[in-house]
Structure formats: C-alpha cells, structure tokens
Amino acid sequence: MLTETNATLWPSLVTASALLLYFIVTINVGRARFKYKVSPPQVTGNPDFERVLRVQQNTVEQMILFLPSLWLFAQFISPIWASAIGAVWIIGRILFAWGYYQAAEKRAVGFGISTLATLTLLGGSFTGIIMSLLKA
Fold it and tell me: Does the model's pTM come out above 0.90?
C-alpha cells in the first residue's frame, strides 16, 4: 500500500526518466550539428539535421502538457496508474524519435502513443479534479 511518503516515488521516477530522455535528444542535436556541419544559430540546411532538431523541439513541446498532467493524475486518480501511463508516454517518445531520425513519415506511431498517453492523463486529471470538487 502506498503511503503519503512514498506515493510520489513512481511519478518522480517517470519525471526523471522523461527529463533524461529530453537530455538525450538534446545531446543528439549537438551531435547532429557536428555530423551535418550545421553551425549555431542555423537550424536549417540539412534534412537529416532538421529531423533531429524537430525531435528535440517536439519533445519539449509535448513535455509542457505531459508533466503537469502526470502529476495531476497522480494526485487526483492514482500515482501508480499515472506512472504506468507515463512510462507508455516515454516509450512513445522513444519510438517517435527513433522513427523521425530515419524519416519524417516514420514518426506517426510514436507520436500517436505519446499523444494518447498525454490525453489519458489530462482527461483523467479533469475527471479526478471534478470528482474531488463534487465531494467537497
């Protein structure tokens, strides 16, 4: 059984894992700059570099929705379920990056998985919050 003290351990692990994933895709941008000879502040020129950059940009865009949704779901529904859905989000983002690095059209499956996870967390958050308000 989760106690107040350890209830946030799993969502914390998912948060740290998401941040690690973001750090890795950010490092990949630097590596791609060197590999494809795209000097800062340039962000265009080589399509292979541009795909790596888009993975990083899209990941940070998605994290803005994902992280608050993860924590709200954990607070109002379940930290364990939030963590499981959050792990699915991370897997989706890995698949997104892996596919996008190869070709833009290969990003769809990973994008779909991570978007569905985010929408599940967000919808669950609203449900939990509204249910809590109705009980108050």
Answer: yes
